[in-house]
Amino acid sequence: MPDNTRRARDEAFWQTFADRYDLQLGPINLENGYFGRMSRTVVEEYQRNIELINRGNSVHVRQRFEQGESLKIQAQVAGLMGVPAQAVALTRNASDGLQSLIRNYNRLQPGDQVLICDLEYDTVKGAMRWLAKHRGVEVIEIEHLHPASFDSLLASYRETFARYPRLKLMALTHVTHRTGLVMPVQAIAAAAREHGIDVILDGAHALGQFEFNLIDLGIDFAAYNLHKWIGAPLTLGFIYIAPERLADIDPDMSEMHFPVTDIRARTPYSTPNIPALLTLPLVLEEHHAMGGAAAKGSRLNYLRNLWVREVRELPGIEVLTPDDPRLYCGITSMRFTAQDDQQAMVERLLSEYNLFTVVRSGAACGPCIRITPGLTTTAEHMKRLVTALTELR
């Protein structure tokens, strides 16, 4: 058994990491997909950096942060991805980054088509529809069959590419926030490339949940969060643009603070959360010390499977995320088939079992309850969830 797989089952080992987080008394949090916790040491470093910048103010920022510290942090984030520093620009979050990539993509002409699906984040859908209004393109929207499979997902895109020959750009979500479905990005991107279609990848939930290589995936444009599974303070994300494709993304609203050859010109220029950015070196150090995405992902998948395997076949329960290991991660959604109101069931999970979850809607397959363990979640928490789902069904 690989070390990460074996270690994922070691409750004592993971308790040593859980002990590094300060938790508020209250419900068991099974909604860790919103944003992640900072460790106690990261919180302390963040607070020190707040005080540092408050004391030094613009003297520190002008002389040290802008002249050197920010560039080192940019390089460290690029190192996390295994890409050159000039391929990465820091943003407040993945949504901001995706909007920048979409609105500044310059290879569209009136009459071209762009593609979204039902599982895309609403901000991404809105940005692609904005292109229709301001660039004169047509938005093609597809819905994925449920239950999904690797072959059905790939086939749906291949059929769409063949049906709409004017497609030039598509959004693709690596891990869908509604159901936790992991898209077969490499296969879809390869098919898109055959038809001359560029992909803008939403990696908001992917980074830190599993390992991937952007070059192998065939992705030239992507945006990510650092505050979900990496452990950074809120307000930190970044975009990736393959260096050879930089000219295909315009400077943001003619941004002139950086040269046109600098990826940082592709995002809005504003005062960032400098104390949070100065905390990133410690965040990345702790992420790697924990074993990185491989270790975190193995643990999250293990916790996910503890509950899914117990309830998958129960009458009254429908697990929406498939069990194909290529298509799932720690995030998984389900619904009570005998209940029309999933929000009411979320409220019962909270009031009767002290389990905090969230309803996600917008997918063609209907509303669902998203269940997302985190690094402080235990096997015992999953047993309580199984009990709750079994009794409430």
From TrEMBL:
InterPro entries: Aminotrans_V_dom, PyrdxlP-dep_Trfase, PyrdxlP-dep_Trfase_major, PyrdxlP-dep_Trfase_small
Entry keyword Transferase: yes
SUPFAM superfamilies for this protein: PLP-dependent transferases
Any Pfam family the entry gives: Aminotran_5
Superkingdom of origin organism: Bacteria
Keywords: Aminotransferase, Pyridoxal phosphate, Transferase
GO molecular function per UniProt: transaminase activity
Start and end residues of each Aminotransferase class V domain: 45-368
PANTHER family named in the record: BLR1280 PROTEIN, L-CYSTEINE DESULFHYDRASE
Descriptive protein name: Aminotransferase class V-fold PLP-dependent enzyme
Lineage of producing organism: Bacteria, Pseudomonadati, Pseudomonadota, Gammaproteobacteria, Pseudomonadales
